[in-house]
Write a structure and sequence with these properties.
heterodimer; A: about 525 residues; alpha+beta; 11-stranded mixed β-sheet; disordered N terminus; B: about 350 residues; mainly alpha; 15 helices
Chain lengths: ~525, ~350
C-alpha cells in the first residue's frame, strides 16, 4: 500500500508540476494582427469561386479591386488599383486607368492585359462568381471583345445595355472578382486547361497589401506583407487568423490578450466582455439579411394574405433584445439599410408582433382554422431560438410548424431544388444598391422547373410576377438617379405587403477588440487589415 | 543437454504462423473493404449535395452541371464505387471536396496533433486509472473506494465540453496557470520548422527550444487532463471490477495463507491475471480518444482528426468522410493487433 501511495503521489506531483511550472504568457507579437475566427467555410482562394463572407474579406485584403468603397462611407466609390475611370455618354463603355509601374509579388509587372485576362477568366471558368459578370451581359462567347486592354494601363469594359455606372462600379469594379492576377505565374501552374483554378485554391497571385503565406484548412491562415506593393506598407507585417469554432473560447482568448480580435461573438459573450471593460466592441451593419424563406408554389403559402400574416408572427422587439441583441436589427424590407434605394429605418420596418392581425389575415385568406407547415433551419447559432419563437407564436393562431434542423449543405440542396415549405436563412447582398436584392428575390425570368435557376431565390421560392419583372427592369435602366431610387422604394413598399418572404433582421458584423489594437477599420463589407496598428 | 527441434515440428509451426498471418491479413482486407463500401453508400444516400458544398449556394445551373460531371456523379453508383476502389488500391483517397487537396494530405496534417493529445491523455488516464482501480478493489467499500468511485462517476458523466470551458475559465482566464486554446503561442508558432514531424512536443525538443517546449506543455496540459479524466474514469471502473473478481478466487486465499504479503498478492498474482483485460480497456479508450474527442477539440481550438471528420460530414465532403472512416478502421484494427500481440506476452496460454 505504501508503495502504491508513493507511486500515486509521484504521478500527482509530476502532473501538477507540469501545469504550474509554465506560467501563461498572454501577448500577441507587436508586428502581427492575430484574429480568432471560425474559418471552416474557406474552401478556396480562387476569385472565380470564393463565395462566402470569410474568404471574401481575406481575399479583399490580398487582392486590390479596381475601385473600392470608401471605408468611412460605403456609398462612395474611391480609386484602388484603378487611379481613375471614365464612363461614355451612352453609359455603355467603362474605361479604367490602372496604376503605372506596379509589380506582382513575383516581380512581374502588372499590365492591363493581366487585368483583362483576370476578368475574362471568371466568365470562362463558369464557376460560382461567373454570374457577377454574366448578369451584365459578359458571356464566354464575346468576352475577349467586351473586356480588353487597349494599352499597358487601360482596361475597357463594353456593356450590352446602359446600366447605371455607379452600379457597375460597385458590382464589377469593387467586387472580389476584379483583383488583377499574375497571369504569367498562374498559367505556369495551369493543370489541364483549368486557368490556374487548382493552383489558386491555395495560392493568391495578385496585387495587394498582403500575400497568402499559408492556409491550413480548419487550423489557420497566415498573411504576410507584400514587399512589392505599390501602396503604403501595412503597419502590421503579418496577419494570423486562427480557426476557433467555439465562441466562448474566442471570448476568453480576446479577453486574455492571446488574440487581438475575436470575430464570432454571441450576445452573451458581448455582454460579458462589455462588463469586463478589457475588450472594446466594434458593431457595424452588414448587407446580410436574415429572412423567413417561404415557398410560394402551393397553397396556403401561395396566398399573399397568409404570407403577410407570417410577418405579424415575428416578435421583432423580443428577439432584438435577446437572441439577436447587438448581432442584428429588425428590418422587414428586402433591401438592406445603407444600400442605394433602400427604404429608411422606419419605413423599412413597419411590422410588430400582432397575433390578432395575423389571425384576421388568415381568416380573410380562408384559413381561420390554421394549417400545418415545416420550417427548416441550418447550423447558424441564432436559428433554433428564432425558429422556436416563430413556432410558438404561430401555434397561437392555429398554424402548426414542425422545425427540421439540418446541416447547411443539406439545407442548401433542398432550397435549390425547391423541396421545402419554409426555411430560415441569411442572404448576403452582392452590392450596396437595391438592385442587388431586387434582382435576386423579385426578378424571375423563367419559373418553369426545367429552367433550373437554382441560384435565384425568386425561382427557388416559385415567386413569379411578370409585372414585378417589368418594374425591376424599368428601375434598373432609369437614367435619372432620383427617379430610379423612387422606383425601388415603390417596389419595396409593394413587397412589404405582397412579397414572397418575411424579412426579419439585418445582421451586424461584430468584433471584440483587445485594448492593444488600434485603428481597427471595419465596415459592413469587410475589415481593412492594413490599417490596423498596435 | 540441449534439445533439438525436429524440422517437421518447426515446419508445422511456421505453417501455423503463416496461416494465422494470412487469415489476419484477409480479415483486415475484408473489414476495410466492407467499411469503404458501407461509408461510400451512406455518403451517396445522405441528402447532402457535394456540388453545393464546393460551389456554394449561389452557383448557376451551368456551373452546377459542370461540377456534377467533373466529380463523376453522373455515373452509376457501382462505377463510382469501382473507381473509388481503384484509386484506393493506389493509396489515393481522392481529393477533399471542400479544400481541393488530397484527403491523405489533410489527414496527415491533423493526425500528429490528435496522436499527441490522445497519447498524453491516455498516459494520464491509464497511469492514474489503473492503480486507482486496483486500490479501489483492494479496499472495497472503504472511504478510498468510495472516493475513487465518485470521482470516476464524475469523469464518466460530466460533459467534457463543459469541463473544458470550466477548466479554461478557471486555470487559464482566472488563475493564469496554463496557456489557453491552441497548440502553441503565436510567438513560437512562427519559429517552428515548416517540415517538422507535426508533433510539437518532439519538434520543439529536437530543436532544443525549451521555452517553446514549455509553451507546448502548458497548452496541452489542460485538454489532455480533461480528456484523460474521462479515460481514467472508464479504466479505473473496469480495473476495479476485474480485480474484485480475481480477489475472490481461491488462489488468492491460498497465496495469503502461504504468508505472501497483501500488496505482493494483489500486484504479482491477481493483477497479472487481469492484465489482458486492462490492456484491452486501455486500447479501446485510446482508440476513442484518437477519433472521438470532437467537443474537447472544439473548445480548445485543437486542429484534430475528430473535428476534421465532423466538419467534412457537415459540409457534405464525402471523400474526406470515407477517407477518415477508413483511417478510423485502420486505427481500431491496428490497436486490436497490438492487443493480440500483447496478449501473447501477458498470457502464456494464448501462445
Amino acid at each position: 500500500m505504501k508503495k502504491i501511495l508513493t507511486l500515486m503521489s509521484v504521478i500527482g506531483a509530476v502532473s501538477s508540476f507540469a501545469g504550474l511550472s509554465v506560467s501563461a504568457s498572454a501577448a500577441t507579437p507587436a508586428d502581427t494582427l492575430v484574429m480568432a475566427w471560425n474559418i471552416d467555410s474557406i474552401t478556396t482562394f480562387d476569385p472565380a469561386q470564393v463565395n462566402e463572407v470569410v474568404t471574401n474579406e481575406i481575399l479583399l485584403n490580398l487582392c486590390d479591386t479596381l475601385v473600392d468603397y470608401d471605408p468611412e462611407d460605403e456609398s462612395k466609390i474611391i480609386p484602388r488599383f484603378a487611379e481613375s475611370w471614365d464612363v461614355s455618354d451612352d453609359r455603355r463603355t467603362l474605361t479604367f486607368h490602372l496604376r503605372k509601374g506596379a509589380k506582382f509579388p513575383s516581380g512581374n509587372p502588372v499590365t492591363a492585359e493581366d487585368a483583362a485576362w483576370s476578368l475574362q477568366r471568371i466568365v470562362k471558368l463558369k464557376l460560382a462568381n461567373a454570374l457577377s459578370l454574366s448578369e451584365f451581359g459578359f458571356v464566354p462567347e464575346t468576352i475577349d471583345q467586351t473586356i480588353k486592354a487597349t494599352d499597358e494601363n487601360t482596361l475597357v469594359l463594353k456593356l450590352d445595355k446602359p446600366y447605371p455606372s455607379t452600379l457597375i462600379l460597385q458590382a464589377i469594379g469593387a467586387y472580389r472578382t476584379s483583383g488583377v492576377l499574375d497571369r504569367k505565374t498562374v498559367l505556369e501552374n495551369e493543370v489541364a486547361g483549368d486557368m490556374g483554378n487548382k493552383y489558386l485554391t491555395t495560392h493568391t497571385e495578385c496585387v495587394g497589401p498582403y500575400r497568402l503565406a499559408r492556409w491550413n484548412a480548419g487550423e489557420a491562415v497566415l498573411l504576410e506583407a507584400n514587399q512589392n506593393y505599390w501602396g503604403s506598407a501595412p503597419k502590421l507585417k503579418r496577419v494570423l487568423i486562427r480557426h476557433v469554432a467555439e465562441t466562448g473560447t474566442q471570448r476568453l482568448l480576446v479577453a486574455q490578450g492571446d488574440v487581438d480580435v475575436a470575430r464570432d461573438l454571441t450576445p452573451q459573450d458581448m455582454a460579458d466582455l462589455e462588463k469586463s471593460g478589457k475588450v472594446e466592441l466594434s458593431i457595424v451593419p452588414t448587407p446580410q439579411m436574415l429572412y423567413w424563406n417561404i415557398n410560394n408554389r402551393d397553397a396556403p403559402l401561395s396566398n399573399d394574405k397568409v404570407r403577410l400574416a407570417f410577418r405579424y408572427l415575428v416578435d421583432y422587439d423580443g428577439l432584438a433584445k435577446t437572441v439577436m441583441h447587438l448581432i442584428g436589427s429588425p428590418r422587414a424590407s428586402l433591401v438592406q439599410l445603407g444600400a442605394v434605394g433602400a427604404l429608411d429605418l422606419k419605413e423599412g420596418q413597419p411590422f410588430k408582433l400582432d397575433l390578432d392581425k395575423a389571425k384576421a389575415l388568415l381568416a380573410e385568406a380562408g384559413y381561420e382554422n390554421g394549417f400545418s407547415t415545416t420550417l427548416a433551419i441550418g447550423s447558424h447559432p441564432y436559428s433554433a431560438a428564432i425558429a422556436q419563437s416563430l413556432q410558438q407564436n404561430a401555434s397561437k393562431v392555429g398554424i402548426s410548424i414542425k422545425i427540421e434542423s439540418m446541416a447547411n449543405a443539406q439545407l442548401f440542396s433542398r432550397v435549390r431544388s425547391r423541396e421545402y415549405e419554409t426555411v430560415l436563412q441569411p442572404w448576403l447582398a452582392n452590392v450596396p444598391d437595391a438592385y442587388g436584392m431586387v434582382s435576386r428575390f423579385i426578378v424571375n425570368p423563367d419559373n418553369r422547373s426545367e429552367a433550373k435557376l437554382g441560384n435565384l431565390p425568386s425561382w427557388r421560392s416559385s415567386y413569379y410576377s411578370p409585372e414585378m419583372n417589368k418594374r425591376a427592369e424599368d428601375a434598373l435602366f432609369e437614367p435619372d438617379d432620383q427617379k430610379r431610387i423612387e422606383m425601388y422604394h415603390s417596389i419595396q413598399r409593394d413587397q412589404l405587403q405582397n412579397g414572397p418572404h418575411a424579412f426579419l433582421f439585418q445582421l451586424n458584423a461584430v468584433s471584440g477588440l483587445n485594448a492593444v489594437l488600434k485603428n481597427w477599420t471595419q465596415n459592413g463589407l469587410r475589415a481593412y487589415y492594413d490599417k490596423a496598428s498596435k | 543437454m540441449t534439445t533439438r527441434r525436429s524440422p517437421r515440428t518447426a515446419n508445422s509451426r511456421y505453417r501455423r504462423y503463416l496461416r494465422r498471418a494470412l487469415t489476419t491479413a484477409l480479415s483486415i482486407a475484408l473489414t476495410l473493404l466492407g467499411l469503404a463500401a458501407l461509408t461510400f453508400l451512406i455518403g451517396r444516400l445522405l441528402p447532402l449535395d457535394p456540388v453545393v458544398a464546393i460551389l456554394g449556394d449561389g452557383a448557376s445551373e451551368e456551373a452546377y452541371q459542370a461540377m456534377f460531371e467533373k466529380l463523376g456523379l453522373d455515373q452509376p453508383l457501382y462505377i463510382q464505387f469501382f473507381r473509388y476502389l481503384r484509386d484506393l488500391a493506389n493509396l489515393d483517397l481522392g481529393n477533399s471536396l471542400t479544400t481541393g487537396r488530397p484527403v491523405l494530405e489533410e489527414i496527415a496534417r491533423v493526425f500528429p496533433a490528435t496522436i499527441e493529445l490522445a497519447t498524453v491523455a491516455i498516459v494520464f488516464g491509464a497511469g492514474l486509472g489503473t492503480p486507482l482501480g486496483v486500490v479501489s478493489a483492494m479496499y472495497r467499500n472503504s472511504i478510498v473506494d468510495n472516493v475513487v468511485r465518485v470521482t470516476s462517476l464524475l469523469g464518466y458523466s460530466a460533459p467534457h465540453f463543459w469541463l473544458g470551458l470550466m477548466g479554461l475559465s478557471i486555470f487559464y482566464a482566472m488563475l493564469n496557470w496554463v496557456d489557453g486554446p491552441g497548440r502553441i503561442d503565436v510567438t513560437y508558432e512562427f519559429l517552428l520548422p515548416e517540415n517538422g514531424t507535426g508533433f510539437l512536443l518532439i519538434d520543439t525538443a529536437l530543436a532544443g527550444d525549451w521555452a517553446a517546449f514549455g509553451n507546448v506543455v502548458s497548452h496541452i496540459f489542460l485538454p489532455a487532463v480533461i480528456l484523460g479524466f474521462g479515460a481514467m474514469a472508464y479504466i479505473s471502473r473496469m480495473t476495479r471490477s476485474f480485480m474484485i473478481e480475481q480477489l475472490s478466487q481461491e488462489y488468492i486465499t491460498t497465496a495469503r495463507a502461504k504468508g505472501l504479503s497483501r500488496v505482493r498478492t494483489v500486484w504479482f498474482h491477481a493483477f497479472r491475471n487481469v492484465g489482458v483485460q486492462v490492456v484491452t480497456v486501455i486500447a479501446l479508450s485510446y482508440a476513442f480518444l484518437l477519433e472521438g474527442a470532437v467537443l474537447t477539440e472544439t473548445v480548445f481550438a485543437w486542429p484534430c482528426f475528430g473535428r476534421f471528420l465532423t466538419n467534412s460530414l457537415l459540409a457534405g465532403d464525402m471523400s474526406s468522410v470515407v477517407g477518415c472512416t477508413l483511417i478510423v478502421g485502420i486505427i481500431f484494427i491496428s490497436l486490436n493487433l497490438i492487443c493480440d500481440l500483447l496478449y501473447l506476452v501477458l498470457d502464456p496460454r494464448t501462445r
